[in-house]
Design brief:
44 residues, mainly alpha
Amino acid sequence: MNLSSERPALIAPSILSADFSRLGADIDAVLAAGADWIHFDVMD
């Protein structure tokens, strides 16, 4: 396997376990920690 041609892994933490009373601060914290994306769980 040639790892040099592989795409890098992306970090995408979920907001499901976030404190929704301070959601903006929690998202800012994970982005500052190096998250590439934020995963939004959609449930019905």
